[in-house]
Amino acid sequence: MTSRLFAICFYATRPPELARFWSGLLGWEPDGGPDDGVAILPPDARGFRIRFLPGPQPGPGRNRAHFDLTSDSPEHQRRTVARALELGGEHLDVGQLPEEGHVVLADPDGNEFCVIEAGNKFLADTGSIGALACDGTRAVGYFWSEALRWPLVWDQDEETAIQSPDGGTKITWGGPPVAPKTGVNRLYFELELPAGADGEAELDRLVSLGATRAEEGDDDRVTMLDPDGNEFSVRRAR
């Protein structure tokens, strides 16, 4: 029985404030459940929640993953950018060219994200979060396709992308060159075991695919590393 993608987690200096930013920008409802800390919930069951956990100050360099938000029209893109700035975001210069249509921003904790221009065919029908764009190898894209049992929807020039069979947000990996990892990632995947599943069997399956056990948690969570050394956690269903 395969684990499902339960949440994308952010380490944050001020989790409640960052949750308010993303809730206000995406229009997702907050969840105050004691098991989930500070989280916001997707608009439908096919999505993942976003969790915000206490963590260290941002380190040097950019995150290994960022959200690409979609736009239905040029006006929609302008409204999304304006709303992000109103909520405490800021413009970010990562070397983008003036003729590029997407807008690069940072949330109040410095996490990069993009607001993609209307008409992007690759992100069509994905929802407000079109993609979680990751820095990573082709091998790690293959790993996550097998780990989540999500089909590959792109595999070209060492770039890969996967998407749930139910649709929704795509997860992409840009291929080489992959920047060296410095410290613990500020964004990571949290998987959840199905109720009644054999947890050890699932952990062994993930190891057989290329994951490494990092440490045992104290609340039914296990921290693991994917083939690119990115942390992810596996938790039991509650």
TrEMBL record:
Residues 216-238 are annotated as: Disordered. Residues 4-118 form the VOC domain. InterPro entries: Glyas_Bleomycin-R_OHBP_Dase (IPR029068), Glyoxalase_6 (IPR041581), VOC_core (IPR037523). GO terms for molecular function: dioxygenase activity. This is Glyoxalase/bleomycin resistance/extradiol dioxygenase family protein. It comes from Streptomyces cinereoruber. It comes from the Bacteria. Keywords: Dioxygenase, Oxidoreductase. SUPFAM superfamilies: Glyoxalase/Bleomycin resistance protein/Dihydroxybiphenyl dioxygenase. It holds the Pfam family Glyoxalase_6.
